[in-house]
Amino acid sequence: MRALLLSLWASVCFVVLSLVWGIAAGSQMIVFDGLYSLVSVGLSGLAVMAHRTAAKGADAVYPWGRETWEPVAVVVKSAALGGLCLYGSVNAVREIVHGGRAVSAGSALAYAVIASLASVAVAMVLYRAARSDTGLVRAEAAEWAGDAALSLVTMGGFLIAVILNATGRDYAARYVDPSLVIVVSVIYLWVPVRLLREAFREILTMAAAEPVGSAIEEVCEELRAAYGFDEFFVRASKVGSRLDVELAFVVGPSTPRRDVDSFDQVRAEIQRRFHALGFRHSTSVLFTAQRQWVDRGS
């Protein structure tokens, strides 16, 4: 939660800084950066609400928990940011058609340097927090990392504008600002597209991505060998900060123990192993002597 609040307040600061600086410098690129941050502020608030909702846990209305609200919030955020990128690129093309835009290149360059350093700092803090937090924090960290990289691109563009102005090529410098908007919009678009794809995987309860799937398979194989089961089957999907897992072990003639106490011991071992892997999970464990009941191909 603290990480999400940090992202929220950092975005507020960027909104104020970039909008005021962009208007003063006459830069569409800096104003676009401010608008992007402004949308992020509102959507970061949505992410905080989704996180608080998911933390309430399961009840009669949500028997499996509320974690689905987390990828839903990511979908809304990604769609809004993607729409803003498309809008910004269309306006930039219009500027180029009408002869470009004159900006205060030196002032714009100074902004790009400050934005780059600040974005790197926030991204590093969020990535550290994401190691033990939700997908929402990882989404925020990815966004700030994208901001940092694109601030460096913007800094390079405004440096070119400064050089063009210094060498008397003011006519060429007019096209730098709208060209940067197009380039940054297209690159920015990759972040919401990637986040949208990952969020839909969770909403549609698709199979958990690597390396989660491999870690679960490894645990099950070790337990199969240790307890003498014939084989096992795994179904796993990640929904927000929760991992849903269904495990099925096939009991064979050579399985040494086939009693309830032994099966409960396997369940306890699975809980311990998954906890050690850092998974916040909801796990169902089945045991059967007939693989037809658990084989998805049957």
Salient structural properties:
Alpha-lytic protease prodomain-like, 298 residues, elongated, 3-stranded mixed sheet, 3 strands, 2 domains
CATH class assignment of the largest domain: Mainly Alpha
Tally the helices: 10
Report how far the terminal alpha carbons are from each other. 44 Å
CATH structural fold name of the largest domain:
Alpha-lytic protease prodomain-like
CATH homologous superfamily grouping of the largest domain: Cation efflux protein transmembrane domain
Order of helices and strands: HHHHHHHHHEEHE
Compute the number of strand runs: 3
Shape: elongated
Please give the radius of gyration in angstroms: 25 Å
Specify the structural class. mainly alpha
Describe this protein's structure.
The protein is mainly alpha-helical. The chain has two domains: about 1-205, Alpha-lytic protease prodomain-like; about 210-295, Alpha-Beta Plaits. Helix content is about 70%, strand content about 10%. It is built from ten helices and three strands, in the order αααααααααββαβ. The protein has helices at about 1-25, 30-55, 70-95, 105-130, 135-165, 170-175, 175-190, 190-205, 210-225, 260-275, and strands spanning about 230-240, 240-250, 280-290. A three-stranded mixed β-sheet has the order 1-2-3. Helix 10 (about 260-275) links the parallel strand 2 (about 240-250) and strand 3 (about 280-290). The radius of gyration is 25 Å and the shape is elongated.
